[in-house]
Queue: 2 jobs
Job 1
Amino acid sequence: MAIPDSFQYDAVVIGGGPAGLQAALTLGRVHRRTLLLDAGSYRNDPAHHMHNFLAHDGTPPAELRAAARTDLARYDTVTVRDTAAASVGRDGDGFRVVVGDQEVTSRGLVLATGLRDTLPAVPGLGGLFGDVVAHCPFCHGHELAGTRVAVLGDPGHVGGLMGPVAASVEGVDPERVVRLERAADGLRVLFDDGTVEEYGGMFVATALSQAAPFAEQLGLAMLPSGCVSVDAMGRTSVAGVHAAGDMAHVPELPMPMASVLTAAASGLVAGAAMAAYLL
Ligand SMILES: Cc1cc2nc3c(=O)[nH]c(=O)nc-3n(C[C@H](O)[C@H](O)[C@H](O)COP(=O)(O)OP(=O)(O)OC[C@H]3O[C@@H](n4cnc5c(N)ncnc54)[C@H](O)[C@@H]3O)c2cc1C
């Protein structure tokens, strides 16, 4: 049984993507008073389908989140609010979270606010991202099987991964691209010398940044990747603050293994570790 105290919640989970939803489910199953806050914007918003998640390969991301919300509704101690947290800070042995013009308090925090992608500044690219332009061969490579695939910049690692999938993989110099356009079977690249090439799809590297300011507000230790440093249990450098999903990773990894399944798995670990912390 949770220890009664003056805090409104045992844990506030900030983020309603796969990491936050799973963390809340894990806490709910041991009847911890949990508040989940969801600002309603998700990293895979540009994509209509998600892949590489067993039993959900091809499921629309919104469908998975809706099913997870249905799961959470069965747990009386879990409250879900579709609203953004504005700021977080310490409150004695716990934390306070500003939500609109209110403040809520909790003994622990699970941050699962994700990352934001900034795309290369190429005209037309934004409207194609998540569709015929992608960043991850594991998520979107198979859908381009047998086609001519472009990589914006040096094909490098992505080129190697796509080698057995694509008919061919070609690097495209971003300095030479005037515009990208949708084509009947992929996209069209318009070059500065007037030439035009068609591809089944294109891969781009995006610049990643934290989607929310809470790591900075709490002074959490960060990694060179721009993600929060966590241990194997999702614990950050501040006791009582755990982090999961794309926004965090262990220092042994160069970057988060950013996928829906790994986000959910790390949410489970961070939620379980939070339940242990609350003991
Ligand atoms: C275009 C694209 C396609 C992808 N396709 C795939 C795929 O096919 N398969 C796959 O496995 N992975 C895919 N990914 C990766 C996948 O989207 C992420 O790994 C996954 O969403 C990470 O989950 P998360 O819970 O950490 O973050 P997110 O899903 O981004 O969720 C972040 C949550 O934090 C909330 N939030 C942020 N700030 C606040 C705040 N101030 N207050 C309250 N809530 C806040 C947001 O509203 C959201 O609920 C794709 C990514 C992109 C960019």
Note: The chain has two domains: 9-116+209-278, 120-203.
Job 2
Amino acid sequence: MRSLLAILFLAPAALGQTYALRGTLITPDEVIENGVVLVKDGVIEDAGANVTVPDNVNIVETHGFIYPGLIDLHNHLTWNAFPRWSAGTLTRNRYEWQATDSYAARLSGYQAKLRDAGCDLERFAEVKALVWGATSTVGSLPLVCTKGLARNLDYYSGFFGTEAAKEPLQYRVFPLELKESDEKSVRDALAADKPVIAHLCEGVDASAARELRMARAHGFLTKGFIIIHGVPLKDKDFAELGKNGVGFVWSPRSNIELYGATADVASAKKYVTLAIAPDWSPSGSNGMLEEMRYAAIWNDQQFPPVFTNKELVQMATTNPAKLARLDSKTGRLAKGLAADYVIVRASARDPYQALIYAAHDDVLAVAVAGRPLYGDETMMKAINPNARVEPISVCGAAKAVDMSDSDDGKGISFADTKKNLIAAFRMFALPMAGLAECP
Ligand SMILES: [Zn+2]
């Protein structure tokens, strides 16, 4: 019964076989050398130093570091095929850069015209998310093509049955611009103890700061509300958020590139559960690992540093899982959780540092519900001999994807996705971004 339930709740991506991975486990609260993760029907059957592996079960020797899959609580997936963009000057709030001619000329105007390519944009962005270690993300399209690769926590995570658009989590870009009925749905969700992630206080001026007062007046500052950005918030504001059970998502690169400043995370970490996420490719990072590296370099320049390497890894795993109320389902290597994981080459002595500084070619496998969807072909095949691997190049590194489940099982390849997008971008004489920025 257990395995049948697991299949139902992790469908459609769960890998229906039993296998074990050996390596250094970063759970991430502890490091277990020479540990084993036993995976059955897409679920972690056991993980630790003393796992009994049944005789007939294949043990994959990874010689690597094994982490839970990264959880991205701030993204806008369909923008991630667009190249890097800058407003040309620092702005004081999001309304300023959204009003620039260059935003219309390089991003928003074309994003609207590329709507027919929505599923290609979505699929491309999900592969991009996987390349940078994310197994769960938000900011996806409410279309059935969203099913099958990364988990989309705002549309179809695979954790709440097989029907799409039944997720408890809401992802709201601008909650202060909502219609009254939508606003009510945010308050109802919070009253029912469901998480709502929203952009708030994005900028450095008084109008950005004012959004906290507006959110308070709307009755949003309550348990389950999760604020993205919060650049101008002060220590006393974070104290209030912490007291009310409000969470926080930090996106430093996008903040610093657009506004020249980012949130006071030294204050934030005293009071609130803090997650890190890349925002989007144009002004943020290409994905989770890249944003973690950006944060680590920023952190090294602070006196004293705000975070340890371990805390940065927790901000990409256990903390976002807790904020999204998915900590009993993903975000740790622990018995009973989904087998969402990332395997990275053991390149540094400190496994937390190895993840933060992992380059795209250090990622050996990224698996959702036990099924490796991205990585090195040999590792993917060792884990899943039936994987339909499609070779791809990431800045010259030979990697592979398994697109068998893309578009709700239609299995549209990455090559076709890219071909469609290149044709669509060419129509508008636009350059297209890659999965990574190559040196
Ligand atoms: Zn955003």
Note: Residues 404 and 411 are 4 Å apart (CA to CA).
